[in-house]
Amino acid sequence: MAHKNGKTLNYDAVVVLSFGGPEGPEDVLPFLHNVTRGRQIPESRLVEVAEHYQAFGGISPINGQNREFVRHLSAELERRGLDLPVLFGNRNWHPYLVDTLATAVESGYSRILALVTSAFSSYSGCRQYLEDIEGAVASIDPQTTLAVDKIRPFYNSSGFIGAIQDNLRETLEAFDEDADEDVLILFTAHSIPLSMANNCEYEEQLREACLLVMDQFDDNPWKLVFQSRSGPGTQPWLEPDICHAIEGSGQSNIVACPIGFVSDHMEVLFDLDLDAKNACEVRGIKFGRVAAVGTNPIFVSGITDLIEQRCGTMQHVVTLGVRGEWTDHCELDCCLGPDAGN
Q1: Of 49, 75, 163, 241, which residue is the least packed, with the fewest Cβ within 10 Å?
Q2: Eight-class DSSP state of 8
Q3: How many domains are contained in the chain?
């Protein structure tokens, strides 16, 4: 059993559970088929999206960034005296969650704490991962005693908010001192269909997180925008799109802050570092982009606090704002998918 300074913990291991991404040109289309399975996306659209990945050598940085996060998290757990292995598994690509959990069972682990690389509540960022966990556990061995619990959404935890503030401050310092207060901050997150947004508190949580970050930057104008929509044009999604916001901003200085993401993966690189930056450059707008929280020590420490709380070695984790801690165990009708009412 895992322990801290001789005290037995509530869990044997932690698994970092993420989306996954291709790690070579030959992986791209198979990966996209995994992502879109059952959604009837035309092959022509997948080929179009594949070109985004091929522009970066067919490699998504997400797996490498997650492995680096695992390394930093393991080091912080060890520094605090927690003998708690950190595993890594994905929804859509190697290492698949089911393979990671099967290896964990072979190693004798029976209680695992899952950290999903999504800070907010939505079907794709929360409920679907719970379904992934349930399916993986059932497929390994229906009779197994393996239990996998998920850490709650952490959008208002002090570690998450503090790391964003730290990274935003660094980006703003790159602007001229006299322009600092005139920089428009565009907080950006993955757009989702309105039918999905109506079944969760995703947008409300995003707005609160923005307000919490801006507590230290109250002289700057800001706006919540969205990116990376992928549905048909006839289907309403959360808006405005970041490029549309840039077009009508009337600003000379803009910073994009990917508050809805925890790593600088492909959608951040393509939609912000290419598309949003280009939308600014053609209008003579100075553009800056805040790094995602990634391995920022404030974030790593905050996540470790959440792990310690669930392991029984820390009673209280600082939560900011007025909404309080999200529940550790989601209700059955929480964060339903877009077709839940059909």
Answers
A1: 75
A2: E
A3: 2
